Amino acid sequence: MKFNLSSVLPKLPKSKGSQNNLLLWGGVAVAVAVAAWLIWYESRKNKGLVPPDGKVEDQPSNRLKYIYGAPYEKQTQTQDFKPEKFPVFQLNKDEYFIWDGLVLNEVMSKTLYSRGVSHINVKKTDYTLPQGKRFLILYRNFFALPISYATLSENKARLQREINSHNPGGIDVLNIDIENDEHTPEYATVCRELAVYARAELGVKYVDYLGMTIANSDYNVTGSNVGRTYFAPYFSGVTNMDDPYPYIQSSWFENGDWLYSAAHVTEQARAVDPTIPQVSFWWKMDVTGQMYIPEHIAHAVPLFLLLTGAKGLINWDVAGRNQYFDVDEALISGFYRASLVNDIRQGKPEFLIPEISLDGGKSWTSNEALAAKKNRHPLVRVVKNGGKYVVVGHNPVLNAKPLDVMLRVNGFQDTIRLKDRQTYLGVG
Question: What is the largest CA-CA distance in the chain?
Fold first, then answer.
């Protein structure tokens, strides 16, 4: 909201009396003060420093200001999914909120684009999406199989037809879903050549591959991925986006383990190559398609991904599984809250893993993700950019009492209070 100062100032009539002049100038002073306060208040509100419901968070922090977000509600009906209820916002230009979920019509796609979404799957629409905002995922059953009977030219033609049938103008981001059961040199070669073809001849800006392995909980704990490891040599120097993520299992929802694992694999991938954008492939349900991510985890996911160095996520869903819109709303609200600290992720931010203390500073432990998961400790991350800090924290242990957590890293120290099913975000 913009304020026009002249609109609130009284027009001064010509007056010869000093008393009248005094009253008039007093009115001017009051009007200026009110206008200045409104501008100050609106500025704080736009930065997330004003609680939307009027309830101020009780926090023990000395150096950090709490960042509020836009509240979300549970929705279970298609017609109740209303992304327009959230404020208009955008992420940084090099960040991605890729939408592979429900798109009812062109109006909704425009609404999603104005609520942080960077790209929409062209298969989810029957109209042309704007240039720079188009996404396509190819599953393993797209390719002409078996590979021994298919030529590269056949698969190139299939890719071109696939794009033309959904979005004649082309696409901007291509995700090749390799899966885990085609570990053959022939298959890897075809996928690699399609990636080269998409970037060189079809004008696709970013290509990545989802070489996933359906594995046990060890995969989530260690971040190992047989599929990606196998295909890595074939795609070296070819793809220019990566999507490390922990495979979701239902047991990982209730105790929030997905957050620990997401932080771990993101930080591991960034350590290997910080120049490649890490865009997590995010499922809103578990591998059975029966259990959905709790809203408090869905809200926390964008904050922890973006504040551990990732560049965003692909919000994946399939037909018949998109009736739980509370998850989508919580996800949008998380991205909106992250947008309030866009500046901390611009330039050359430092993504830091602090030490934490749960006993008032008597003892300290590293908050590295796997150690935190093992110890059932809260997850806390710090981003430093110049002299500014942003802290994000979440206690995935459900039904926990409010927990005061001391944190320290690189000379910065403070205390935050984590509450059940809430994500802390503070700036200082």
Answer: 99
Rounded to whole angstroms, how far apart are CA atoms 236 and 174? 16
pLDDT at 112: 96
Is the distance from CB of 364 to CB of 331 less than 8 angstroms? no
pLDDT tens sequence across 338-378:
999 999 999 999 999 999 999 999 999 999 988 898 888 99
Strands laid side by side in the 365-366 sheet? 365-366, 355-357, 403-409, 412-418
Helix (H) or strand (E) holding 230: helix 226-235
Q: What six digits make up the tokens of 24?
A: 């008039």
Half-sphere exposure of 221 (CA within 13 A, CB side): 6
CA distance 335 to 321: 22
In this predicted model, what pLDDT tens digit does every residue of 387-411 receive, in sequence order?
999 999 999 777 779 999 999 999 9
**What are the sequence ranges of the domains in the chain?**
5-46, 78-339, 348-427
pTM value is 0.87
Residues 6+ apart with CB under 8 A from 331: 284, 298, 299, 301, 302, 315
Task: Region of 316 please: left (phi>0), alpha (psi -120 to 50) or beta.
Answer: beta
What is the Rg, in whole angstroms, of the alpha carbon atoms belonging to the chain? 25
Instruction: Report the top-level CATH class of 78-339.
Output: alpha beta
